[in-house]
Amino acid sequence: MSDFLKVKDLEVIYTQAGRTVHAVNGVSLEVRKGHTLGLVGETGAGKTTIAKAILRILPDPPAKIKRGEILLDGEDLLKKPESEMLQVRGGKIAMIFQDPMTALNPLMTVGDQILEVLTLHNDYDIKTGMKKAGEMLETVGIPAERYGEYPHQFSGGMKQRVVIAMALACNPELLLADEPTTALDVTIQAQVLDLINELKEKFQTSMILITHDLGVIAQTCENVAVIYAGSIVESGTREDIFDHPTHPYTIGLFESLPNMTAEGEKLKPIAGMPPDPTDLPEGCAFAPRCPYATEECRRRKPEMKELSPGHLCACFNRNEPGTLKGGA
Amino acid sequence: MSRYILKRILGMIVILWCAGLVIFTLTYLVPGDPASLLLGKEASQETIEIKRHVMGLDKSFLGQLGSYMYNTFVRLDFGESWVFSSSVISELGVRLPRTLIVGLAAMVLNVVFGTLLGIFAGTHEGRWQDSLVMIIAMVFVSAPDFFVALLMILLFSLKLNWLPAYGIDSWKCYVMPILASSFGGIAINARQARSSMLEVIRADFVTTARSKGQKEGIIVRKHMLPNAMMPIITGVGGGLAGVIAGSPVIETVFSIPGVGAYLLSGVNQHDYPVVRACVIFFALFASIAVLIMDLCYAFLDPRIKAQYSKGKKVK
Ligand SMILES: Nc1ncnc2c1ncn2[C@@H]1O[C@H](COP(=O)(O)OP(=O)(O)O)[C@@H](O)[C@H]1O
Ligand SMILES: [Mg+2]
After folding, report:
1. What are the respective helix, strand and coil percentages of chain A, to the nearest 5?
2. Segment A258-288, tens digit of pLDDT
3. Checking CA distances to B27, which of A133, A247, A249, B96 falls within 20 to 30 Å?
4. For residue B31, with 0-12 CB atoms within 10 Å meaning exposed, 13-18 middle and 19 or more buried, which class applies?
């Protein structure tokens, strides 16, 4: 089956005060119909930038999509005129944002904010639209009577529910969920995640779930891509990544996780810091922190290699799927 | 909400009361005996004493203060001008419209042009349009009112002979005073509007609106402007008070017999009832302006409204 969304060799830079931030450097991704791709990586790895690039809502300036293709059902979104993109945004592709506290307009009632997206993509009259918006609120577990309330009258978790209602209002074929639970209390996180999954099943939506939390990935994703400093370093099915993590960075991620390490063993946070995106190393971006780094790693950037069908890894030194223990 | 308004009005009364107390004390402490200044050097000691008694200056400080506060705030009687022996309040009544015409018109210019320029600059951030507006704003902010006024007189009255340099005989007389007193405010409003516009342009909810497929023009109108207007509105009240407070200067330069000029003549001639009444008027005006703006703010922003409406707790 062909991939529903295919991102090919995407490069995005930000230009700021004469300096160039290399936020996304040749990223390729695939999402299948009805599937969820987990995109995992540290803060600043370029995850949000990828999602915004897909919707073409990056602020320009400072952001610029340098090259790449974003194929949705075979059509390159980057080549579409803006007027057609308006139909795609909120209609075919919707996004859930990282911070529900600021994602809603404080001066508009939550109902009206859902109504806005509904009327943009449907021919509803106001009355039908309001009824639909009320139904969407109910769908995410908020009584429709709260239609006329303002964002400040809702808690963080409730606001995120409103954002989810907004994103799913027009039955998008692809949902970009950008750390949908990061800003929420731990107790609420699970609820919101369950809600997203449930609705995704119900509406048969494909999804890119962005997170830095491997636990979240384990619960929800069929496929996983690990991103480091704007490049995908390893991708595959959930089993590939969780049972056979291969790239030293992926292994590092697992070892720095409390519940993934055997009892009694010490946590091993990855030594060092992610590289400065304005001044990326010439070779592999992870080389400065990598225990296996060789001279070649510092000189040349490794390509993605297929280790087993569908399991790709960008590392010179690791040529077959790893095993979790010991990482070899 | 009505509770809040009531509270604010009570607060306003207290502020006026304090203004009265302060201005009375200050004028009392000014060196020189108003009675002898009024009568001139030739007056005999006896006449001066009689005058002092008539003016109530022979009473103790507290006695004078007491009767001043009683007359002003209980009987609402501002007394008579010492120099002209005319009722201060009726003189204020005649002069007030002139000051208000200039003040309110300047305010409208401030808000309209300041906001438009600021939004224009904000939406062109970093480009030459932005720099141009900000440079003009900086010049306007730094140039004193009276200086701008004098330059305008030189240009429009003396050189081009388009507008009268002084007086209130026709509407033309008001053009320069209004313009001269609005420049500073336009600049301040433009800077305020620009910075709140910039804040809003980068706001997450604007990205949200984009992600819904909303058109850019509607995003500006529906999402950016209302949010950017909030801080601008707060500035309007203070700006209005500022325009009125600047009236002594503008009214002197253009010889407009308004409240500001009245205040200044009162100060120059030690005519304290006039000074006190004008100051109370300014304080009253400023508090009303700020109150109205706060109410607008509360009315437009659901978050503020929620704070003010009693009994309805924020959920
Ligand atoms: N508006 C912007 N201007 C300049 N740099 C930016 C901007 N937004 C993001 N960046 C930079 O791009 C990189 C990737 O950011 P982002 O996509 O937000 O990462 P993530 O979502 O993975 O945390 C970071 O180095 C960040 O500093
Ligand atoms: Mg992010």
Report:
1. 35, 25, 40
2. 765 456 666 777 878 888 888 888 889 998 8
3. B96
4. exposed
CA distance A240 to A217: 13
Task: Return the amino acid letter for A131.
Answer: K
Helices assigned H by DSSP within A41-125: 47-55, 82-88, 100-103, 110-121
Q: CA distances (Å), B204 to each of A97, A154, B211, B288, in order? A: 9, 17, 11, 36
Nearest to A142 by CA among A151, A25, A213: A151
Atom of ligand 1 nearest to the CA of A45: 22
Strand pairing partners for A65?
Answer: A12
Helix (H) or strand (E) holding A227: strand A223-228
Q: Distance of CA A80 to CAs A14, A70, A77, Å?
A: 22, 10, 5
Residues 6+ apart with CB under 8 A from B313: none
B39-98 pLDDT per residue, tens: 887 878 888 888 888 888 888 889 889 989 988 888 888 888 888 888 889 999 999 999
CA distance A50 to A85: 16
What does the pLDDT read at residue A325? 53
Residue B88 φ then ψ, to 5°:
-65, -40
- Tokens standing for A210? 């962005």
Nearest to A50 by CA among A4, A10, A99, A82: A10
Beta bridge partners of A306: A312
DSSP label of A154: S
List residues in chain B touching A: CB distance below 8 A.
126, 202-205, 207-215, 222-223, 226-227, 300-303, 306, 314-315
The predicted-structure confidence for A169-199, as pLDDT tens digits, reads as follows 898 999 999 988 887 888 888 888 888 888 8
CA separation, residue B3 to residues A153, B7, B288, B309 (Å): 22, 6, 17, 8
A37-76 exposure pattern, b = at least 16 Cβ within 10 A, e = fewer: bbbbbbebbbbbbbbbbbbbbbeeeebebeebebbbeeee
Measured between alpha carbons, how far is A10 from A43 in angstroms, rounded to an integer? Answer: 19
Mutate which of A10, A49, A96, A231 to test ligand 1's pocket (most atoms within 8 Å of Cβ)? A49
Torsion angle of alpha carbons B101, B107, B112, B113, nearest 10°?
100
In terms of phi and psi (left: phi > 0; alpha: psi -120 to 50; beta: otherwise), the region of A229 is: left
The one-letter amino acid code at A143 reads P
Q: What is the mean pLDDT of residues A289-312?
A: 89
Q: Which of A87, A89, A152 is closest, CB to CB, to B306?
A: A152
**Using CA atoms, how far apart are residues A275 and A256, in angstroms rounded to an integer?**
19
Measured CA to CA, the distance from residue A214 to residue A47 in angstroms comes to: 15
CB-based contact A215:A259 (threshold 8 Å): yes
Tell me if A121 and B213 make a contact (CB, 8 A cut-off).
yes
CA distance A92 to chain B (A): 10
Q: Please, which residues bridge with residue A177 across strands?
A: A96, A209
Helices B204-211 and A47-55: angle between axes, nearest 10 degrees: 40
How far is it, in rounded angstroms, from Cα B295 to Cα B308? 10
CB B120, CB B129: distance < 8 Å: yes
What angle, rounded to 10 degrees, do the helices at B128-142 and B172-201 form? 130
- pLDDT at res. A2: 64
**DSSP output for B30-96:** SSS-HHHHHH-TT--HHHHHHHHHHHTTTS-HHHHHHHHHIIIIIS----B-TTT-SBHHHHHHHHH
All domains of chain B in start order, with CATH: 93-263 (1.10.3720.10)
